[in-house]
Amino acid sequence: MDRVTAWEAGVSIQGVKNITMSEDFLEFHFPRFPVMPGALIFEALVQLAGWLEAAGSDFTRWILLEKVRSVRYYGFAFPGDQVLLSVEARGEEDGFKNFRGVATVEGERRVVADFGGKVAPLADYEDPEEQRHHFRVLGREIRLS
Known about the structure:
Elements: E1 3-8, E2 12-18, H1 38-56, E3 61-73, E4 82-93, E5 96-105, E6 108-121, H2 128-138
């Protein structure tokens, strides 16, 4: 995920992934027909859910993927495409937070996923201050010189 474009704590988050020809995975996926693997687009949606939880908890919590209820793939994302990512919180059930993610390219669906994860203390995995800084960069709240 390259940029957070909007978010509302506990509700939803949007972002973008720009696919460039220099992406390592394109060398072998597939030779002479480079496409971004759908599983990596799904991963970007899950990462966005993590950012939603982190930003909404003042960077004390993160989401760890536990359940994938459904993932549907609808087409390819190619070098030069900008994948628009959107994740909505769908409440809690059985100790898991649930999410629905949609990835599109030029208004056309590429991935739609329903998934859930358990909430974990962010400090167990990453430095919360460093993640706060990364989120500010992703959201363009600060500019690096």
